[in-house]
Amino acid sequence: MQSDYTSSSTERALCDQAGLPRLKRLGLPRRSTKRKASYRIAVPYWQSVTNKDGNTHQHIIGVVTKSEAFYTNKEVVDSLDKGHEWYTEVEKEPKAKIKEMGHCPKSDCHHKPYLTTDPDHTTKNNLENLPRG
Predict the structure, then answer these.
(1) What is the mean pLDDT of residues 25-46?
(2) Is 75 in contact with 81 (CB distance < 8 Å)?
(3) 3-class secondary structure, 27
């Protein structure tokens, strides 16, 4: 089993180039057909990027769980496709369900897959508003 924290050499290179720390990577839980799908609580992990026009912004490149395991956006989306659920957790707020978004919301950025949360009555639990992981 490979111990790298990302699933592709491109993602590893981007993380290394940005000086992001190497985080533990744990296997995703296997889904049982007899039990409810598993879920994980996560906070976003951001990266600064510069587009071809020289404009800089940050986007979510993955999430970090309570056990400090890092999962790339693709790993989370693959897990969602298998029936697993991912949530944010904010004190005194309901959990917000993490879902796939087509690409980064910046108009000139096409990083994909991208993660966001289902809208609810508060923005405090939105993935985009949580502390940087």
Answers:
(1) 58
(2) no
(3) coil
pLDDT tens column, 75-94: 999 999 999 999 888 888 88
Q: What is the largest CA-CA distance in the chain?
A: 51
What pairs with residue 99 in β-bridges?
116
Whether omega for the bond prior to residue 113 falls within 30 degrees of 0, making it cis, is yes
Contact 72, 7 (CB under 8 A): yes
**What is the rounded CA–CA span in Å between residue 97 and residue 75?**
16
The CA-atom distances, in angstroms, between 65 and each of 62, 68, 129 are 10, 5, 16
Side chain identity at 10, as an amino acid letter?
Answer: T
Question: Bridge partners of 98?
Answer: 117
